[in-house]
């Protein structure tokens, strides 16, 4: 890997194209280095993971609405829409939109945390949609997905967006454009313009994940994927982007991030180096914000030792800066302790999550979020006894350069009414690669079976798993069949323009 310095360029001076970050990202995408077997297998696992959480969300309102919008844009050859039949094809940008919302709705797929946050599995819907539309095979699809993951993960390693209140999809837009460019085998000149356009159109504030969080949290990455497809289309037609998009006097670094004097370092593979970033990412066992995963496991482990939860005086969670300020009391969001809060808000409230996990000793993507569950008097009482503090040691571990030492958990100290303190800590979730029960193909398949049960017929599940498990070897016709047909599809309850 080579660390590339990114800073604002002097006003009036010309920054050569080859020195611009967007060009360097494009060069990585265009590098035809083979995809390794281990990476290809993990891409298959993540295709299964995405399909699992999409299946579980098909009946939810935001997903039904996004699907209805997509189905209003039928197109041939087009791309498939999750849940719809095999003959239903829509324009690829709308397939990316509908499938992106389905994948993201339950906050239940893969993650990568470093200088910033990300869900790199969001790259798969737009890249797969273009592959289906253009009739490309599994080898091309895997090449594109590997590139999308590489670009997003490397941006997340080097550039922090959230400290400037910029939403993390600003890294997804360029990554998806790069992945589509790699899929199509485009020249770096074309990918460069697509990356610039995608970044320019997908840079938004973090208010989508603050305060009263709405369904836009699921729509935001789908919007980025859709924008990336459209950006590639324009770039292929010869249309250009603002340049230099990162380093310009009025570019992203100068005006939206650290300012004219800021310096970032983005690590990227050198030419000929394999794109392996997907292997540094990890999925979720629980449907909640990733930084709660280890704390859910910890709460389940601690609950039997605590016993009578009505005797709890206080629950103190010592954790990282990110966890405290994003999903903890450091966010200063009153909605995070409100029983009437949206599901999207509750899955970003570690106070609620710890209280429910202590009570139920389990977590479920639906039952843990019902209105009745959130309003249970014992839960509300316990919930409001939970607070978080930043612990410098946990912040340091969160950013540890050694993946084996990096930690996303915390220490929980439960003070009882008689002053007894019951404490325990957990560095990473059980499902994390360094955890007690790391996810492998068996666990991805089990997650898929559990979430698709009653939604996707068993024979259809079998068909999809067969394709996903040999994703790199798929023919073009098999890539077009990499989709799920639901037993039944929910219709939207309201109508829009389409």
UniProtKB/TrEMBL annotation:
Catalytic reactions of this protein: (2S,3S)-2-methylcitrate = 2-methyl-cis-aconitate + H2O
Gene3D superfamilies named in the record: 2-methylcitrate dehydratase PrpD
Keyword vocabulary terms for this entry: Lyase
Residues annotated as domain MmgE/PrpD C-terminal: 286-470
Enzyme class, broadest EC rank: lyase
Ribosomal protein keyword on record: no
Pfam families, per database record: MmgE_PrpD_C (PF19305), MmgE_PrpD_N (PF03972)
Claim: S-adenosyl-L-methionine is one of the keywords in the record: no
UniProt GO MF annotations: 2-methylcitrate dehydratase activity
Annotated MmgE/PrpD N-terminal domain residues: 19-262
Subunit relationships: Monomer.
Family: Belongs to the PrpD family.
Cross-referenced PANTHER family: 2-METHYLCITRATE DEHYDRATASE, 2-METHYLCITRATE DEHYDRATASE-RELATED
Name of the featured protein: 2-methylcitrate dehydratase
Organism: Glycomyces paridis
The organism's taxonomic lineage, starting at the top: Bacteria, Bacillati, Actinomycetota, Actinomycetes, Glycomycetales
């Amino acid at each position: 890997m080579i660390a590339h310095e990114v800073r604002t360029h002097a006003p009036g001076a010309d920054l050569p194209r080859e020195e611009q970050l967007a060009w360097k990202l494009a060069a990585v995408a265009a590098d035809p280095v083979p995809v390794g077997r281990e990476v290809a297998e993990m891409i298959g696992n993540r295709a299964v993971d995405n399909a699992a959480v999409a299946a579980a969300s098909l009946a939810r309102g935001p997903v039904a609405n996004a699907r209805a919008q997509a189905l209003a844009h039928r197109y041939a050859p087009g791309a498939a829409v999750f849940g719809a039949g095999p003959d239903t094809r829509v324009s690829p940008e709308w397939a990316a939109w509908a499938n992106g919302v389905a994948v993201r709705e339950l906050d239940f797929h893969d993650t990568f945390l470093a200088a910033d946050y990300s869900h790199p599995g969001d790259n798969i819907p737009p890249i797969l949609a273009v592959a289906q539309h253009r009739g490309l095979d599994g080898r091309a699809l895997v090449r594109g997905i590997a590139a999308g993951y590489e670009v997003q993960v490397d941006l997340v390693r080097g550039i922090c967006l959230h400290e400037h209140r910029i939403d993390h999809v600003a890294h997804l837009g360029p990554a998806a454009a790069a992945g589509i460019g790699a899929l199509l085998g485009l020249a770096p000149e074309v990918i460069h313009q697509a990356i610039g356009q995608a970044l320019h159109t997908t840079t938004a504030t973090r208010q989508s994940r603050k305060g009263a969080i709405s369904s836009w949290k699921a729509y935001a990455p789908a919007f980025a994927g859709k924008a990336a497809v459209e950006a590639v289309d324009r770039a292929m037609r010869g249309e250009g982007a603002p340049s230099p998009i990162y380093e310009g006097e009025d570019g992203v670094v100068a005006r939206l991030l650290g300012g004219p004097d800021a310096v970032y370092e983005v690590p990227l593979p050198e030419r000929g180096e394999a794109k392996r970033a997907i292997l540094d990412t990890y999925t979720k066992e629980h449907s909640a914000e990733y930084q709660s995963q280890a704390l859910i496991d910890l709460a389940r482990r601690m609950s039997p030792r605590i016993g009578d939860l009505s005797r709890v005086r206080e629950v103190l969670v010592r954790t990282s800066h990110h966890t405290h300020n994003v999903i903890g009391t450091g966010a200063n969001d009153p909605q995070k302790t409100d029983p009437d809060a949206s599901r999207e808000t509750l899955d970003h409230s570690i106070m609620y999550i710890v209280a429910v996990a202590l009570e139920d000793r389990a977590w479920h993507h639906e039952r843990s979020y019902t209105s009745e569950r959130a309003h249970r008097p014992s839960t509300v009482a316990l919930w409001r006894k939970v607070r978080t503090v930043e612990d410098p040691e946990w912040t340091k571990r969160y950013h540890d350069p050694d993946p084996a030492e990096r930690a996303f958990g915390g220490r929980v100290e439960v003070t009882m009414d008689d002053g007894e303190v019951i404490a325990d800590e957990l560095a990473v979730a059980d499902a994390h690669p360094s955890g007690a029960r790391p996810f492998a193909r068996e666990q991805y398949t089990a997650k898929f079976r559990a979430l698709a049960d009653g939604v996707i017929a068993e024979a259809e599940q079998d068909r999809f798993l067969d394709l996903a498990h040999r994703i790199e070897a798929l023919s073009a016709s098999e890539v077009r069949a990499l989709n799920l047909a639901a037993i039944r599809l929910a219709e939207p309850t309201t109508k829009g323009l389409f």
